[in-house]
Amino acid sequence: MTKKTNRDPIRVQPGPANYYSYPGALEELGRLYPGKNMERAFLLYGKRALAGAAPYLPLAVSRLVGSRGFLFGGEDRRFNTGRPFNTTHCSHELVDALSTSLGPDGVSVIIGLGGGSVLDTAKSLAVKLDLPFVAIPTIAATCAAATPLSVWYSLEGKALGFEVFNRAVDAVLVEPRIILDAPAEYLKAGIADTLAKWYEASILTAGGEGLPLSARLGLDVSATLKDVLLEKGKAAKTALQTRTLSPEFIEVVDTVIIGGSLVGGLGERYTRVAAAHALHNGISVLSETHHLLHGIKVAYGLLVQAALMEDGSLDELIPKFRELELPLSLRDLGIDPEDKEKLRRFIDASLVPSESIHYLPFPVDHERLLRAIEAVENLSC
Fold this sequence. Notes:
Elements: E1 19-21, H1 28-32, H2 36-39, E2 42-46, H3 47-53, H4 59-62, E3 69-72, H5 92-102, E4 110-114, H6 116-129, E5 133-137, E6 149-153, E7 159-164, E8 171-174, H7 176-180, H8 184-204, H9 213-242, H10 247-267, H11 275-283, H12 294-309, H13 313-324, H14 340-350, H15 366-380
Parallel strand pairs: 1-8, 2-3, 2-4, 4-5, 5-8
Antiparallel strand pairs: 6-7
Helix pairs in contact: 5-6, 8-9, 8-10, 8-12, 9-10, 11-12, 11-14, 12-13, 12-15
């Protein structure tokens, strides 16, 4: 894999047009889309997301459920394709079915309520219908709510890649009390995925004299996010466990959702993914990891990337990962490190020529990657 030169232009997409994060933020919907605009909205939502958000939803949004809404992950005969139809991922088939059923007439805005897959689907539908999109995240596991891209899956649930859109998210409304009631695993995953932005961006920009200003800004943002998460991540986790709406908790949530979006939006290819995400993709071929959140697998990939770089960052990450109860070894992911066949499959999938592990400043082969994996296993003992 070859990296484009610094002379090649990048597209800067800083973030959503509107971002609100405070207790009561969902009331901003009435200001952004008053009167009949909200009556003509279309809502995509998850079952658990709706249950968690219900106490905080404006009445105008609650009225959309059923009549002008789509239950993500459920069965809806309006969108029957005549074959098993997986609605638990963002798929072209689902977006096409929804857009055909709706059409642009009579719909004023698309609202997504839930986690990454729900928001990616709603986002894609809004782009296809050329309508505004409002994200109401109910977890802080990724920056999906604020980032103008969607990750596509097949009907069978296989990842197909991501698509970056030409328009920004119109509004992100974060009600921190909803996220405070979500399982802790989601926030831990979001912290890990956002931490990786600094460690990967610093590799992609190393030695990059003449970087575009926006890429330098993206790198600076990623450094700020790292500092916040390393300093306040544990306090945020404690706040979540005790259901205390603390300033640290809200700051960490915003760091994940809006901060993570800003890094890639400002720096594009200079601040997106390197080895940690390639290792996530590689380990995802093992069925034992299919139930794990994206950020949890990225966390392990970040440790292996640090071992590959031999820059001292592994010594910084290990104690912080212990504090945050993030994975420190293959066993923490449910994988036997002595299983040579599974290790081979993991390594081979991480090293395919198109993977971003090849953005490291040195070649990585099977033996070098195996040594890094073993170094992580030894340190985590």
